[in-house]
Amino acid sequence: AELIEKLEEVVMIWTKQIRQVLVESEQIRREADDVGPSAELEHWKSRMSSFNSLLDEIKSSRVKKIISILQAARSKTLKQWKELDGSITIAANEAKDNVRYLYTLDKFFGPLANGSPVMMEHIPSLIHTVCMIYCTSPYYNTSEHMTSLFLKITNQMINTCKTYLCEG
């Protein structure tokens, strides 16, 4: 009983830490007003890395042993643990999926950032790709994500034009 109590304390600490990671990941991001679309990809790559590391830890043999001991003891702490495990899995899948879709835009980021106002030739393909992401992504097809992405694309176009005008 004493061992079970100590293991439950450990799981409760993990639960609190995982909740904190989830809460922080859902907070509104503070970004500069002129940040470009590559920042969106970097954000999701970072998030994917964090959640994958967390998943790796959750699936480690040490954690699995503790969870199986608590399962055998029919611990009440496991209900919360299972919910958090599911939430982490969903968050990791979302990040992985968003990175995969945003990588399809990566080929446009260079011409958008380093070009001249002639970058217009890339815009139809870029918009078509964004439309495909919206139509096919199970996670990224929200108005919040699309608004953020279009804002960053627009920021990049404005920055490129400003740079071109200041150099000319």
From TrEMBL:
UniProt cross-references to Pfam families, sorted A to Z: DHC_N1
GO cellular component, one term: axonemal dynein complex
Superkingdom of source: Eukaryota
GO biological process, one term: microtubule-based movement
Domain Dynein heavy chain tail, first and last residues per copy: 4-166
InterPro entries in alphabetical order: DHC, Dynein_heavy_tail
Single GO molecular function: dynein intermediate chain binding
Protein name according to UniProt: DYH8 protein
Organism of derivation: Sylvia atricapilla
Gene name linked to the record: Dnah8_1
